[in-house]
C-alpha cells in the first residue's frame, strides 16, 4: 500500500514537471501540497485501522541536543532587601544659645574643627559695656579693700568698714564672672570634633536658640539606618550578617546588624535597624547617602540549588528534566521537586534532586519523558 502511495506521489510530480515546466511553478507547488495532504490523510487512516486491530505503530523519537549541569551541594542564602541611608553617631546641627545678630562666621563647609572651637559670634555690645562698667567698679573696690585692709592690720578703723570693703569687692568679682559666662554664650562653639558639613546663615543675619545654623559631623563611626516593615520583626536580630551596596560609590561592603529597635512607627508600620561595618571599610561616606541594604534572614547549608527558570509547573506539581543514562546514551527523565525560598534567580530544592543529578538547562522545553538526548558540545557544567 505504501509503495502505491509513493508511486502516485512521484507520478504526480513528474506529470506536473512535464506539463508546466518552469513557467507555472506556483501551480506545481499547489498541486504538490494537495498530494501531500492526500497522502497524509491516507497515512492517518491506515494508522487508525492498525490501532483498531490492536497493533502499534512504532514511532521513532528523535534525539534532542541539550545542555546539562551536574548538581552539587551548596549553601542557599536569602536576603531581605530594603533601602537605607548613611548616618553618623556624632552628627550635630549647632544652634545659638542666645538670640542676636551674627557679627562673624569663622568656618566654611569642609573645614575641620575641634571641640570647643569658636565657629561664629553674636553681637554682644550691650553686654560688653556692662562688663566694662563692672570692671571699673571692681578696680575701685580692689583699691578700697586694700587700703581698708592695711588700716585694719594697723588696728585703725572698725571691723565693719573692713568687711564692707571686702564684701563689695567679692560681689563685683562674682558679677563680673557671671557676665563673662553670659558673654561666652555669644560665641557659637563646636560641641564635637569633626568636619563642617553645612553653614546656613551669613554674617549680619539674626539667629535664635533652637534653630540650627552650622552642622558638624564626625566622619568616624558611620552607620546605616534602615526602616523595615514590621512583618519582618521576628526575622531580623542583632548580629545578622548583611551586605550593603552604595549606588553612588558603586561599592559593596559587608556589615552587621548592630541595633534592632523594638518600637514600631505607628504611621509607617516599620521598625529601625542600624548596621555597622564589621572590621572597618575603605569607603568614604557622607550623611544621608543612599544605601541598598541586604540582610541575610535565611540560610540553608548543604542543599541543592537551581536557577528558578528551570523549574516547570503543571496543575499538580513542580518538576525538572534530568538526563539519565540508559544503555549507551541518555534519556530525558521528569523528576518532581519540592522547592523552598528563591533569591537572586536561584531556588532551593528541598526534595526530588540530589548531588550528582544532571539537570537539563537548555532544550528542556523540547523534550518529553524517555526521549533520547545528546549533550551539546561543551554543555556539561558543574554547579
UniProtKB/TrEMBL annotation:
Gene3D superfamilies: 2.40.30.170, 2.40.420.20, 2.40.50.100, Helix hairpin bin
Start and end residues of each CzcB-like alpha-helical hairpin domain: 132-182
Residue ranges occupied by any YknX-like C-terminal permuted SH3-like domain in the UniProt entry: 303-373
A Pfam match: HH_CzcB
Span of domain CzcB-like barrel-sandwich hybrid: 92-216
UniProt domain CusB-like beta-barrel: residue ranges: 224-296
Coiled-coil regions, chain positions: 22-63, 124-189
Claim: Coiled coil is one of the keywords in the record: yes
GO-annotated cellular components: efflux pump complex
InterPro entries in the record: Beta-barrel_RND_2 (IPR058792), BSH_CzcB-like (IPR058647), HH_CzcB-like (IPR058648), RND_pump_MFP (IPR006143), YknX-like_C (IPR058637)
Keyword Transmembrane helix: no
GO terms, molecular function: efflux transmembrane transporter activity
Keyword terms, alphabetized: Coiled coil
Family: Belongs to the membrane fusion protein (MFP) (TC 8.A.1) family.
PANTHER family named in the record: HLYD FAMILY OF SECRETION PROTEINS (PTHR30469:SF15), MULTIDRUG RESISTANCE PROTEIN MDTA (PTHR30469)
Protein name (record): RND family efflux transporter MFP subunit
Species, as recorded: Pontibacter mucosus
